[in-house]
Amino acid sequence: MNAQKRQEIFARLRDHTPEPTTELHWTTPFELLTAVLLSAQATDVGVNKATARLFPVANTPQAILELGIEGLKEHIRTIGLYNTKAENLMKTCRILVEQHGGEVPRTRKALEALPGVGRKTANVILNTAFGEPTIAVDTHIFRVANRTGIAKGKDVVEVEKKLLRHVPREFRQDAHHWLILHGRYTCLARKPRCGSCIIEDLCEYPEKTEL
C-alpha cells in the first residue's frame, strides 16, 4: 500500500469520527489503567459496568489497597478472570503507592514494570491518558492493519512498528482509536462489512464481502 492510499484512509476515518477515544469509562490516568487491566478477555461494556460499581468506592491506588483483595473481588467478580486481575491490580496499586507517590508513571519502562501491564496496555496509557502518539495493537488493529494492507506483520510488535512508520504524522495520535473502532464495528473478524465500509475502495483485502 502506498502513502497516498494511507493518507486518504485516515482522512476518511477522521472525517467519520473526528474525536475518537476509548470506549472505556475513565476520568483519571489511574482509572484508565484500572479499566485497561480489567479489560483483558472482557468487553468494554462489561468493564464499564464493573468500574461503575468500583470507582465511586475506590478510584485511587491507596483506596484500592484499603478496600482489600476480597473487597476488590466483590466489585469486579462479574468480569472474566477477576481473581487474577484483582491480584495484579492490588500489586500494581502497592507499587504505585510505594514507588510513584500514588501516581501513574509516564514512561513505558515504569508502566511495563507494573503487574499485568504489557506493551499494549502501556501504549494505551501513554496515548490516551498522556497524549503521546503511540499505537496500541490489539486483535482488532492487528486484523485491520493486515487485512487492509495498511501495515502487514506477523506479530503485534511488527505491526506496531510499521504503523508508526507508515501512518502520516497528523493522524498518529488517534490512529489506534480509529483502527479499533473500524475493526470492532465494520472490519469484523468472521465476515467484514465491506459493502458499508467507508474505505472499501482503498482496502487491498482480496476477499471482500457484499454486506
UniProtKB/TrEMBL annotation:
The keyword Glycoprotein does not apply. It holds the Pfam family HhH-GPD. It catalyses: 2'-deoxyribonucleotide-(2'-deoxyribose 5'-phosphate)-2'-deoxyribonucleotide-DNA = a 3'-end 2'-deoxyribonucleotide-(2,3-dehydro-2,3-deoxyribose 5'-phosphate)-DNA + a 5'-end 5'-phospho-2'-deoxyribonucleoside-DNA + H(+). Its EC number is 4.2.99.18. Belongs to the Nth/MutY family. Residues 38-185 form the HhH-GPD domain. Its cofactor is [4Fe-4S] cluster. SMART domains: ENDO3c (SM00478), FES (SM00525). Keywords: 4Fe-4S, DNA damage, DNA repair, DNA-binding, Endonuclease, Glycosidase, Hydrolase, Iron, Iron-sulfur, Lyase, Metal-binding, Nuclease. It comes from the Bacteria. InterPro entries: DNA_glycosylase (IPR011257), Endonuclease-III-like_CS2 (IPR004036), Endonuclease3_FeS-loop_motif (IPR003651), Endouclease-III_FeS-bd_BS (IPR004035), HhH-GPD_domain (IPR003265), HhH_base_excis_C (IPR023170), HhH_motif (IPR000445), Nth (IPR005759). The keyword Ligase does not apply. The gene is nth. DNA repair enzyme that has both DNA N-glycosylase activity and AP-lyase activity. The DNA N-glycosylase activity releases various damaged pyrimidines from DNA by cleaving the N-glycosidic bond, leaving an AP (apurinic/apyrimidinic) site. The AP-lyase activity cleaves the phosphodiester bond 3' to the AP site by a beta-elimination, leaving a 3'-terminal unsaturated sugar and a product with a terminal 5'-phosphate. It comes from Halomonas daqiaonensis. This is Endonuclease III. CDD domains: ENDO3c. GO terms for biological process: base-excision repair, AP site formation. [4Fe-4S] cluster binds at residues 187, 194, 197, 203. It is an enzyme of class 4 (lyase).
